[in-house]
């Protein structure tokens, strides 16, 4: 892409005109905003590598307040992602995905992150109801251990830490599938791409009492796309093979970087052997920019339905059956699938209906044995409190669009590039507000601190994938989505942003203050 194209788009203006234009570049993926970066390495055969499940983080003790204490070291490591090849990664504890945190509602944990990477980092717990000082403000940098000098801070406000930082997570929230990932201002996309992401699961008694599939029949699935250079390293625009440099997003790639290899839990197109029984899949789209339309295809038969039991922020009131699930980056869908409907020997392929190429496959399940199963999906899952904005509730509009001027060309919210020092909105804790998200192209909108509920999509009822407590909502081109949001407990400064990470890095983020 070049200035000419941007100028052209700028002249055209108008959400509808923008939405109708295909992206240029090496490839286009239907349904995602972004461009495909082609891998150099001949791509591996799908469905050969067994699905790994990330190890569970172990506490190292308790702190003075009685909270479980964990330590995580962020470091460079080698991973075998493509069979027989080495991929250098940036990893939490040197692995990708990072270790999974298993936590319980109301039981706080403290995670001490140590940065042994060559670049500053910020950790955010996505979906966490977290006080501002632990949330991962994009300028609360943890500087590399032993190399704290020389990192410019753009002259803006943030809390610098030398080498280590503690994050306190109260886990005082509904059970749900959360995830933690890198969040440094301007550098989130390339750092997450290189491996800085992991699961954080909150459980509670309500959920434990339900007869849902559990233990090895409960699988967290982190889905993301990557491209690879000929030497097996991750390819990302402007990323040379050196680990010292972590470039920001190049202007030409501000639409979004799409890989041509789909990884699940860090390996390409894995296969998993399952019992003929129900399984709970915690689906997470951890891609920088790619959206998926996930379906479970069965040779010679109809697709296997996915029964949604939860969304970003925990259990739904009642299950919802889907033939396919559209998931944008940052979103989670908690689903139960019933392999007992199929004969032993059946191969069930999770496909992505939004891509006709290699990114059209995600992973495979092989039904290998009959098994007993006393799990089921109850008709009623959880008490669900609908957020009802009172008459006269504050209303705010956030417009997500291409824009900016001069050096700040990129993506904007209400015409402004991310400014940590200026609040777009001061919100009273405990008050329900109505927020309207308006888009030009695709923007998955994410809000920190508290989950929200979708009230309307384009003036009509919420869409098929909007149920429950959401913290990220897939706003498609030229759409208008209204949500009810209520912040609680923690006064401070938080962000809302587009979860297309290239858009986020290109300034599509806003500061909000809770007061
Ligand atoms: Cu998953 Cu502010 O991000
Ligand atoms: Cu978040
Ligand atoms: Cu966006």
From TrEMBL:
Keyword Secreted applies: no
The reply to whether Signal figures as a keyword in the UniProt entry is yes
Q: Which GO terms describe its molecular function?
A: copper ion binding; oxidoreductase activity
Question: Which keywords appear in this protein's UniProt record, sorted alphabetically?
Answer: Metal-binding, Oxidoreductase, Signal
Pfam families recorded: Cu-oxidase_2, Cu-oxidase_3
- Stored CDD domains: CuRO_2_BOD_CotA_like (cd14448)
Q: Which InterPro entries does this UniProt record tie to the protein? A: Cu-oxidase-like_N, Cu-oxidase_C, Cu-oxidase_fam, Cu_oxidase_Cu_BS, Cupredoxin, TAT_signal
Catalytic activity field? 4 Cu(+) + O2 + 4 H(+) = 4 Cu(2+) + 2 H2O
Q: Where is the signal peptide?
A: 1-25
Catalytic activity, EC: 1.16.3.4
Q: Which Gene3D superfamilies match?
A: Cupredoxins - blue copper proteins
**Location of the Plastocyanin-like domain:** 79-138, 405-513
Assembly and binders: Monomer.
- Family the UniProt entry places it in: Belongs to the multicopper oxidase family.
Q: What is this protein called?
A: Multicopper oxidase CueO
